[in-house]
Amino acid sequence: MSESEMARRLKAVRRGLRKAGLDAYLIVDRPNTRYLTGFACSSSFTLITLDEAWFITDFRYIEAAREMIAGFEIVRQKTPKEDLARRIKKSRVRRLGVEKSLPYGMALEFSEAFAPAELAPDNKPIAEVRARKSAQEIRLIRQAVRRTDAVYADLLAEVCGGWTEIEIRNRLRRLIESHGGFAESFDSIVASGPNASKPHAVPGKRAIQPGDMVQIDTGMVLQGYCSDLSRVFSVGRPTRRMRAIHQIVRDAQRRAIEAVRPGLKAKEVDARARRWIERKGYGKNFGHNTGHGVGLEIHEPPSLNPSNEEILREGMVITVEPGIYIPGWGGIRIEDVVAVRKDGVEILTAAPKQILVA
What we know:
By secondary structure, the chain is α+β, with helices and mostly antiparallel strands. It has helices at 3-20, 30-37, 59-68, 80-90, 104-113, 124-131, 135-158, 165-178, 240-259, 266-279, and strands spanning 24-27, 44-49, 53-57, 73-76, 95-98, 118-121, 183-184, 189-192, 213-218, 220-222, 225-226, 229-234, 291-293, 300-304, 317-320, 323-326, 330-333, 336-341, 344-347, 356-357.
């Protein structure tokens, strides 16, 4: 990311601090650290006040951090608790924002060490900024999505009856690497035949057979940003029932995507897909959320679920992935990544949605 983009993020988080009535914010979470500094490592503390910023890490990362991070004072860690306490007290911090994911034991230690500063668990100062992606972020996600489309196309050109689910999963991993992905954005799902009734089935030794429907759910990490794609293919000509249920899911997804726009509640997008599937008689077979945010993590806010009142904002990037799952028969899920735009929605995924034959 450019220095101007990183400076924008820091400025936006500081606006969030003022809005929340916080004097400073302590970041321990790895994705939040990467978002604010552009630097990925396994151990660090990031402390920002309204006019200062420190990145504190150990010997393993200090040299690389000094080379890569701009806008922060880079500090070699000696004793984290004491290092942070000195800066917090020197800056006269009274309310210190911390992530709600901060480990309980660490929170107890910090609460005592940082006194009289009060620890205030609050995700909003950084979560609200991360939820709305910049043009640079959307460009990276789009690239990751399009390369994942290509991975799926290459897979279908190779796979055939007799391959096991694990073999297909392993091939997906190699294709992701060959298309420039750093890694999978999650453990790819390959579920054939009746196994596909489990939305998060773990690939096994089952060999795909003529007449099988195969559910693929995969994604890659590209320059830190994730993609997510779900499609189904058949081994041989799909049956009438497969085509009928696939069309219901496809229509449900289309209705949900058409609804996406700034100002709409997340639960309303979910409702558009869910009501259609219920109308067709499969409501009990759609038990998960309609989608989720995507960015540095594969699952980010907002969640498209039946109760989420969160408002969609321009710049959010989300998946739309309704499905129908029938025990003993199988399941079908179609998933695209879309960006919320000022005037509606941009579909980032280009992979064909029809049932392709392997």
